[in-house]
Amino acid sequence: MIKKMKRASVLALVVASAASVGMTLVAPAAQADRRVVLPKQTQRYTMGDGTVVTFNRVRERATINPSMGGTPLHRNAWVSGKFVVHTSKKVGKIEITPGYIVGCQVNLGGATGQGGADSFADGVADVGGEVELGPGEAKAISIVDAEKADDFGNEKHEEKIEYEDTRRASLAYTNSQISLRGCAGYAQARSFATVLIETEFAMQTMSFYGRPFSIG
To answer: Is this prediction's pTM over 0.90?
Structure first.
């Protein structure tokens, strides 16, 4: 009787061990980072006074990685790139306000025109901020936090850079963060640059959009 009990105990232990191994084998693998390299772009716009504005987007890339949230509702990406603006003649001022539009179950390929990012997205999030979106919603995220003194010498922060009396302006960014939560469906992101040009006879704002890419 004692021998039978011992044998039953050994069999139970073997079965338990086998079940444990089986559970280990079916455990999901950790998600790896996904790298996206976007093609360079050249876009042009002619202002009312005839000034031709050429916008170049180069070295744009993104690394999409699993968020700290660890669920499909969380997305995280690190974006890099460079914007260069050329004008056909020297102008009084060039301002570049860059960012990314993030959308939840939205086709971001429809973002066009000269109205600026706000005309397509619902508001603008702070640099490195996390946005929460539901189906059909989109929001812009800033990627520049420039410090400068105001007229009274106090420090202020702006989401743009400014050049004066020039024909060329550029802006580069590396590993700026995009974080999204709350989106249960597919999500996309797309870079944009809102450019203000001031000449002797005209002042105009125009927006240039990059290619959309999936962030999960």
So the answer is: no
